[in-house]
Amino acid sequence: MTRLDAPPPIRIGLLGFGVVGGGVVRLLSQKAGAIATEIGRSIVLRRVLVRDPGRSRPFDLPEGDVTTDAGAILDDPEIDVVVELMGGVTPAAEYIRRAIRNRKHVVTANKDVMATQGVDILQLAREHGVDVYYEASVGGGIPLIGVFRQDLVANEVHQVHAIINGTTNYILSRMAGDGVDFGPALAEAQSLGYAESDPTADVEGIDATYKLAILASLAFRTQVSPAAVYREGIARLRAADFRYARELGYVIKLLAIAKRHPGARGAGAPGARSTPLTQGARDGGAPPPTDETAADEIEVRVHPTLVPQDILLAGVNGVFNAVHVRGDLVGDVLFYGRGAGAEPTSSAVVADIVDVAHNINAGVANRIPFHYAGRLPIRPIDRLETRYYVRLWVADRPGVLGQIAQVFGDHQISIASCIQKETDPSAESAELVIITHPAREADMQASLSTLEALGTVRELSTMCRIEAFA
Ligand code: HSE
Q: Is pTM beyond 0.85 here?
């Protein structure tokens, strides 16, 4: 929009001045001219909330006040946009709400807040006529939130397969490519600054469940809580698994998977997406259908997964992230890039600030609201049907293989292949790698429990699900 008069600058209050906060301040300063040209007015940093004003920083704040008082930003009527880059739920969620109630637009990179409280916060923003943007909460600089909010809106999204944790993808890439075992690969990721000193959130798949909850909520216009996402981490994998997976034509990735399963009415049938699109966020949406088979269901899970070597996701290595989406109209689309780091994340934050500025210029807010269509039931993991990879050590004597096959057979699981790999003569043990035909998770879990109790099974080493990408 071209204006003849010179509109006043847009004033930013920044909450948090860590790696990403520093990156955003640097970017706003370095590209001030280009940004002002883009939006027709300048952006000024009015105030920054820091925890410790005495801490040394890579560069001085170019402008604006430093404060330790959040109220000096949240309650300042001169501030138009609050940029929240503190991370964590407390106190960030409350600060975001307070900013909204004070009619400030919010840009946040906070996956914890948006995964657990995003639907409520977006509704609160609607009620107060302000915007909440959160592109940087998933996948760093990779455009994802805007893609689901806007670009793929004509589609019914069927599936999302994502590599959304760079630390684990780095570790798995090292294990696959160089035969490094889990412990040394983790230590290396820590020494390079990818993994935290406490790597639990990454290694156990927790970080990925939060990101998947955000993506699945957007993709299916529902509310998925991170706690509802089935989760397994990568710590049980061994270098041998990567070797055997490669021989079988697979790579192992920590995949975040979301799928929509049409109910008896069928996806897209009248009533299948029944509630008016903008209703229901405050009260949790439509009550869960009493007849679950009539409703669409969603599947959300994060776990190490064998994926065919020839699909694009299999080639995503190192700290890179990628998100593969399948929609009814667009077919398959893939988003790839750096999922973390000051510059990629700042790219997403500043793009959100620019978007908000355009809305301020146009005098609108919530131009593209989050359309919450009600809570879709989550399909329990027990009902998953997929192929499985199982590696186990057994007693190396006649009849043991038959015994193992019998256990799977008793649970209606058909074995597609069974290969004896290593042997350990001193322990009279042999290592078996079994691939099954599609089987139900409940039957696989029951089989594993039975196998664990057999005296001839020395160790149940690994069980991985195989994703077909049909
Ligand atoms: N620790 C995350 C990762 C980045 O390794 O991808 C922040 O979400």
A: yes
